[in-house]
Amino acid sequence: MPFKISSFEEYQSEYKKSTANPEAFWDDIAKHYQWSKPWDKTLEWEFKTPKVKWFLGGKLNITENCIDRHLKDKGDQKALIWESNDPNEESTSLTYNQLHQEVCKMANVLKSHGIKKGDRVCFYMPMILELGISVLACARIGAIHSVVFAGFSSKALADRIKDASCKMLITSDGINRGGKKIPAKTLVDEALKDCPSIESVLVKRCCGLEINMKAGRDFEIPVELEKVNADCPAEPMDSEDPLFILYTSGSTGKPKGVVHTCGGYMVYAGYSFANVFQYENKDVYWCTADIGWITGHSYILYGPLLNGATSIMFEGIPTFPDAGRFWDVVDKHKVNQFYTAPTAIRALMACGDQHFENKNLSSLKVIGSVGEPINEEAWHWYNDKIGKGNCALVDTWWQTETGGIMLSGLGKHSPMKPSHAGYPLPGIQTVLLDQSGKEIEANQQEGYLAVKFPWPSIIRTTYGDHERCKNVYFSHYDGYYFTGDGAKRDENGMYRVIGRVDDVINCSGHRLGTAEVEDALDEHEEVVESAVVGYPHPIKGQGIYAFVIIDSKMQASEEIKKSIIDTIISEIGPIAKPDKIQFVSGLPKTRSGKIMRRILRKIAEGDTSNLGDVSTLIDPTVVEEIKGGKV
Ligand code: WT7
To answer: H helices within 480-544, ranges in order?
Structure first.
């Protein structure tokens, strides 16, 4: 039974096995990991409640699988390489031996501050080694990590801390991002005015910023590390104990905390990494994502480390000091597998060929894409200019909720087709549904992408609100996990994911709910009502278009626009800044008060020729006004 598949025929036969008898299939895969107690039962499930449990009764610790297990053969091999934001700073690294020591020490620091199994620890940090180490330290002692992307505002951070009642926060003085320094600790101080559950804050200085340290609450990481030893046995965790919470946006309400568990997540993160990237011993692998997103969790830390890989953690951005930075790093570290997002590819494509022409990219074997559909032009540029027509290009479709890659080629073994993610991984039973929830058997038809059988890293719940998990993912179509995406299959059954079919915008690979952005807009004093839609954007994939009604006493002006943008930055963060704001005097609403977003989407796209039926609107004249309006 191969853990790593080595041909397309083998993929096909593994896929067949995995659907004919999923339990037997995953039993075999799970045996490749180290368990302190074997599981009694492989799977229990129903999608109604939903209730999904994998490897019941099994005990394990994911850090033993990520680190301890490799010490005998790979103790001196690099586990993590850190590449600074500043290209002139030396990169540093940790071998598996060193990582083991650092994680154990950090775990002891957490314990010395009263953190126990099941406690929630929040992170708000840049991409420095301490982030990776501390996340693993949580896992070592069974604390649940909740990493918040450090581009979110203090308000958004506070919401997430409160939702999970986090006991500790781990942060830094600031964040180096290109030429800017972001005052992380100051933002944290602001957030913590309103977060009574936080008992202690651990701080790593990496930016040289002046910060306040609150006595009795705030502690310096290096000072705390001096006080502990490097002996920390791994806490045996139940397969179904939570490993982490990660917040993500949906079509309604506030972002929700997606919960992943220790056993199933481990099995799938490791299996999918090995197969999609076809990692080989001694390869250097680089995923450019941030650990604040699921991609960083599964494919910078857990997936690579579970496979004893060498994984790069990059602190910087693609365009600093210039648009050649990615290719410098690939050349410098002789990267073999490279994984990034279409928005970065399009941005770099627009900067011209001079940025990679004198860089040696010949080490690359697999190049990956994730986060949004990759358009054909970007696909070809990536394949031809970066992969030199000589690499496997894997377009990987998945979600925070799926924990790992669901649709993708397996390195060089799978057929490639521009803008197509391809086939489901073994164990992943994807289907397309029509409007009525019936499975579409034929190819070449568009449908809703859903999954009809559980896989090990499927979302277990939304933290503190199981009903929401049920409503969002399991109630649309009985018996299916609903992804929120539309897709189609070509004549050979290869999937092409088209994009969200719900009110979620994918802006530069960041997922934002229209309702969430509207709620933030409505916080502005002069905003009476707003409606937000996505529209095609050449670099970002989708841009954010806001239709805003302001108080009738106010004059629409650039100043108001600016202050509305400031409100968004402080409510959510710069990632949710609207690209366009159009002031309107009314919104197209149906008699039941629902905004007809379909019409707004068309207008935002600039396609006003055929807006369809507007007869159900209370006041169809607003459409004419909006069409003629200016941005
Ligand atoms: C949504 C999930 C999971 C990694 C990062 C995003 C879109 C993701 C692809 C792809 C087309 C994609 C989907 C999905 N998406 N990858 N290869 N092709 N669309 O995670 O923030 O949970 O967003 O991103 O719309 O539902 P996320």
So the answer is: 514-522
Residue 93 near residue 80, CB atoms below 8 Å: yes
Main-chain dihedrals φ then ψ at residue 344, nearest 5 degrees:
-70, -40
Alpha carbon of 399 to ligand 1 centroid (Å): 5
Q: Which amino acid is at 46?
A: E
Structure tokens given for 82: 């850190």
Give start-end residues of each CATH 3.30.300.30 domain in the chain: 508-627
Q: Give the contacts of 206 (CB within 8 A, at least 6 positions apart).
A: 126, 128, 130, 172, 173, 174, 176
User: What's phi and psi for 163, nearest 5 deg?
Assistant: -60, -35
Structural fold of domain 508-627: GMP Synthetase; Chain A, domain 3 (3.30.300)
Distance 323 CA to ligand 1 centre (A): 24
Atom of ligand 1 nearest to the CA of 500: 25
| Calpha distance 382→369 (Å, rounded) | 9
Q: Is the model's pTM score more than 0.90?
A: yes
Tell me, in angstroms, the distance from the centre of ligand 1 to residue 341's CA: 10
Residue spans of beta strands (DSSP E) within 186-305: 200-204, 218-220, 237-238, 242-248, 256-261, 284-287
| Those residues with Cβ within 8 angstroms of residue 477's Cβ, 6 or more apart along the chain or in another chain | 433, 437, 448, 450
Q: How far apart are alpha carbons 505 and 519 in whole angstroms? A: 15
One-letter amino acid of 439:
E
Residue 443 has pLDDT above 80, yes or no: yes
Homologous superfamily of the 1-61+236-428+491-498 domain (CATH): ANL, N-terminal domain (3.40.50.12780)
Mean pLDDT of the chain: 97
Summarised one tens digit per residue, pLDDT across range 412-441 is 999 999 999 999 999 999 999 999 999 999
Listed residue (159, 147, 244, 161) closest to 200, CA to CA:
161
534 CB near ligand 1 (under 6 Å): no
Cβ 457 under 6 angstroms from ligand 1 = no
Q: Which atom of ligand 1 is nearest to 398's Cα?
A: 3
Per the CB < 8 A criterion, the answer to whether 370 and 319 are in contact is no
| Tokens read off for 197 | 């559950």
Residue 312 near residue 332 (C-beta atoms within 8 A): no
